[in-house]
Design a protein that fits this description.
Elements (H helix, E strand, L loop, with lengths): L1 H18 L1 H9 L1 H4 L7 H23 L14 E7 L14 E6 L2 E6 L4 E5 L12 E5 L1 H4 L13 H4 L3 E7 L2 E11 L2 E10 L4 E2 L2 E5 L5 E2 L13 E7 L14 E6 L22 E6 L5 E6 L4 E7 L4 E6 L6 E6 L44 E3 L5 E6 L12 E5 L4 E7 L6 E8 L4 E7 L2 E6 L4 E7 L1
Parallel strand pairs: 5-9
Antiparallel strand pairs: 1-26, 2-3, 3-4, 4-5, 6-7, 7-8, 8-10, 8-11, 12-13, 13-14, 14-15, 16-17, 17-18, 18-19, 20-21, 21-22, 22-23, 24-25, 25-26
Length: 459
């Protein structure tokens, strides 16, 4: 009877081990004690062998995978790197504001951190011997952005995480800053302020502010997410074929996310021509008149205008997967929230209202524009730039897309039609990359986990 009882216990434990995750974790955590008992089940023995194989596989992958290489070991070029601390908070689980953004003016590098502090450095200096000095510039930004949540750092307040600078653009002697703007109690829109560049004091004023529409803050984060708000700005000259109105003046292209609106409306905000949300807007630099340039966007986090080939590229966050690289054309709809190659986020909170719809796995079948490329796994794709022709012939005609969750830079090329991804290289950096620019054959990168400016030079 004793032997028969042990046999049934043996079968029972194995069945539970295979089917019950909590029991498996309990057994695995206590394995060092269990193995001292006078018998062990085959499942436990298998777990030991499996652990050894996984460890060997992990060590092997570290040796072989180029995803683990630093950027100075990328496939075609070697780089030297210099990291410079910037005056900003770090990104962590408690602090989720954007860390900083960068742009250039003449021979100066401008950095604006998430709470609006602006500094500049002379990039013509030789900073290989620690000569890189950031000089702060005073401004009236607190008189213009009066929302208290905007300046909170490290409080853990969910609402304060959404309030920060979203981009910087310098053009024609002006500095433009985009941000999430509190219009009224718990209701947000996307806005732009600007100032004439003055190295002693920056006097900001409103440039783009739609007071008639806002998205209401939802503490449950199910129908509102301030991180899903876009905010990228690029300059479009008046001679551009993408200048679709007021042909005598230059324009600014501005991405506005949908703040996590969805199909609960009869017409989703991202496709509603009466709404600015889920759109890329074209704004007149002289009179601030604007038109909807494209729609059906979720969260465009990168914009680039290639003046040579006359194309506009954007990068866009998908939901749970489905990050996109898009070729943007006037009047087109890019499908959100009907079509996406991602899925709904897994949600274990029983009290929340779950999304009750599925995304279509085609864009073109429903009259929408297909992305150039969609990533199965979300990389948190951010800014996109083109590599200058004189940078290096090995990277000729290449684009660089930074990523947040992916901790990599994606270098890619388009085919001759400029409509399809031809080649791609993943370059491992090891941190969240908020912004990326190239100047004078150096790559400037904002790293969020360490709050640093990384400068890469070709060796």
């Amino acid at each position: 009877y004793f032997i028969i009882s042990l046999f049934f216990i043996y079968i029972f434990l194995n069945l539970i081990y295979v089917k019950n995750l909590d029991f498996r974790k309990f057994i695995n955590n206590g394995y060092s004690k269990i193995e001292k008992i006078f018998f062990a089940t085959p499942a436990l023995y298998y777990h030991e062998i499996e652990s050894k194989l996984l460890l060997e596989e992990k060590n092997m992958s570290r040796e072989l995978s180029y995803l683990e290489r630093e950027i100075n070991e990328s496939h075609f070029l070697n780089f030297s790197k210099k990291n410079i601390k910037i005056e900003s908070h770090k990104y962590n689980g408690r602090n989720m504001k954007a860390v900083a953004f960068i742009d250039f003016f003449e021979d100066k590098l401008f950095i604006v951190n998430g709470v609006g502090k602006i500094s500049f450095a002379n990039i013509a200096d030789d900073y290989s011997n620690n000569n890189f000095e950031m000089t702060p510039i005073s401004s009236n930004i607190k008189d213009v952005i009066k929302n208290k949540f905007f300046y909170e750092i490290g409080t853990g307040s969910r609402q304060s995480q959404f309030d920060s600078i979203s981009d910087i653009l310098i053009h024609d002697g002006y500095i433009y800053l985009s941000f999430n703007r509190l219009v009224k109690d718990n209701c947000y829109t996307k806005s732009i302020i600007r100032s004439k560049i003055n190295f002693n004091f920056l006097k900001f004023e409103d440039f783009f502010f739609n007071k008639d529409e806002c998205r209401e803050y939802d503490e449950n984060k199910k129908r509102f997410n301030g991180h899903q708000s876009g905010g990228r700005m690029i300059y479009i000259d008046k001679e551009s074929p993408h200048n679709i109105f007021n042909y005598s003046s230059d324009k600014l292209l501005f991405s506005v996310g949908d703040f996590r609106s969805n199909k609960s409306n009869n017409i989703p905000l991202a496709s509603d021509d009466r709404s600015i949300f889920g759109k890329i807007l074209l704004i007149d630099l002289e009179n601030q008149e604007y038109k909807i340039f494209s729609k059906g966007h979720r969260n465009p986090q990168g914009l680039y205008y290639d003046k040579e080939d006359k194309i506009i590229l954007s990068t866009e966050h998908g939901p749970y997967g489905g990050d996109e690289i898009n070729l943007i054309s006037a009047g087109k709809n890019y499908g959100w929230p009907i079509s996406s190659y991602g899925e709904n986020y897994p949600d274990n909170n029983k009290d929340r209202v779950k999304d009750n719809f599925e995304f279509e796995k085609s864009h073109s079948d429903f009259g929408y524009e297909e992305p150039i490329f969609a990533f199965t796994k979300s990389l948190g794709i951010s800014e996109i730039i083109k590599v200058p022709d004189d940078f290096n012939h090995k990277w000729k005609n290449s684009f660089l897309a930074a990523t947040l969750n992916g901790h990599i830079i994606v270098r890619f090329n388009l085919d001759n039609t400029l409509e399809n991804l031809q080649t791609a290289e993943f370059i491992y950096v090891g941190e969240r990359i908020r912004d990326i620019k190239i100047s004078k054959n150096k790559i400037y990168v904002i790293l969020e986990n360490s709050a640093e400016l990384a400068i890469y030079s070709i060796e």
